[in-house]
Design a protein that fits this description.
Oligomer: single chain
Strand content: 5-15%
Largest sheet: 7 strands, antiparallel
Number of helices: 8
Low-confidence stretches: 15-25, 120-129
Radius of gyration: 44 Å
Number of strands: 7
Order of helices and strands: HEHHHEEEEHHEEHH
Mean pLDDT: 77
C-alpha cells in the first residue's frame, strides 16, 4: 500500500513538472516571438552607457520609461490591439530587455525588448499571469514614438530603425546622383581607350612583319623544268660540227 502511494505521488509530481515546464516554455516562446528592437543611429555601447552621474541621464532607464509611457498611452485608446479588456498601468519594469542589449550593430546601438502585460487578459480575468504585448502593436508604438525615444537619450541619438523598417530620414542620394553618371562616363572612356590601344597594337604588329608578309597575298608560280632530251637536241642544233 505504501509503495502504491509512493508511485502515485511520483507520477503526480512528474505530471505537474511537465505541465509547469511546458507552460513556462510556451510563455518564453511567446515573449521571444513578441520581442522587438530599435536601433539608435551612429552610437556606440560606450557612449550609450556613459556614466549617468556625468550626463545626468541613464539612457537605458530613460528608454524603458519612455516605452512604458508610449505603451500606456496607446493601449488606453486601443485596448484590443494590446490584448487588454481595460486600462492598465505600465512601468519601466514591464519593459524587459534581452540579455545582449545594448548591442553594437552596424554602427548603431541595438536595443531588443518585449513588454509584459500583468494580470489582464481579453477574458477580463485578473490574475498573476504575465502576457507579452503583441509585436505588431509594439512596432507601431515605437514607430509613432520615435521622436520621444530619440529625445530620451543624453546624446539625442536618433532612432533610425524599428525592427527591419527604417523610420529615420531617408538616405542622402546626392552622392549617388554624382557618382552614377561619373561611373558611366569612366566606363565609356575606358572602352574607347581599349579600342584605340588595340588598333594601335595591330598596326604596330603589321609594320614589324618581314617584307612580303605584311598581309599581302604571295602568288607562287610553278616553273616547269626543261626536258633533258630536248635540252640535248637544242645543244646539237647549236653545234652541228660537233
Amino acid at each position: 500500500m505504501l509503495n502504491l502511494c509512493r508511485v502515485s505521488l511520483c507520477c503526480f509530481l512528474l505530471v505537474l513538472f511537465h505541465v509547469r515546464w511546458g507552460y513556462c516554455g510556451e510563455k518564453e516562446d511567446e515573449r521571444s516571438a513578441n520581442t522587438e528592437f530599435i536601433r539608435y543611429n551612429e552610437c556606440t555601447v560606450e557612449r550609450w552607457g556613459k556614466d549617468p552621474e556625468e550626463t545626468g541621464i541613464d539612457n537605458t532607464e530613460n528608454m524603458k520609461m519612455t516605452v512604458a509611457d508610449l505603451v500606456k498611452a496607446h493601449c488606453d485608446d486601443n485596448l484590443a490591439d494590446c490584448s487588454l479588456s481595460s486600462s492598465s498601468e505600465f512601468t519601466m519594469d514591464d519593459v524587459v530587455l534581452s540579455a545582449d542589449s545594448p548591442l553594437y550593430f552596424n554602427g548603431d546601438v541595438k536595443m531588443s525588448f518585449y513588454v509584459n502585460i500583468e494580470g489582464k487578459s481579453l477574458t477580463g480575468d485578473d490574475d498573476d499571469t504575465e502576457y507579452a504585448l503583441p509585436q505588431e502593436t509594439l512596432s507601431i508604438i515605437c514607430e509613432e514614438g520615435k521622436d520621444a525615444l530619440t529625445n530620451a537619450t543624453n546624446g539625442g541619438f536618433r532612432v533610425d530603425f524599428v525592427g527591419d523598417k527604417r523610420v529615420g530620414p531617408p538616405l542622402d542620394g546626392t552622392l549617388n546622383k554624382i557618382m552614377i553618371p561619373l561611373s558611366l562616363c569612366l566606363v565609356i572612356l575606358l572602352a574607347v581607350i581599349a579600342v584605340v590601344m588595340n588598333h594601335y597594337h595591330q598596326k604596330e604588329d603589321k609594320e614589324h612583319l618581314p617584307t612580303g608578309s605584311q598581309g599581302d597575298d604571295v602568288v607562287m608560280t610553278a616553273v616547269k623544268p626543261k626536258d633533258k632530251e630536248g635540252a640535248g637536241s637544242g645543244a646539237s642544233k647549236q653545234n652541228p660540227t660537233a
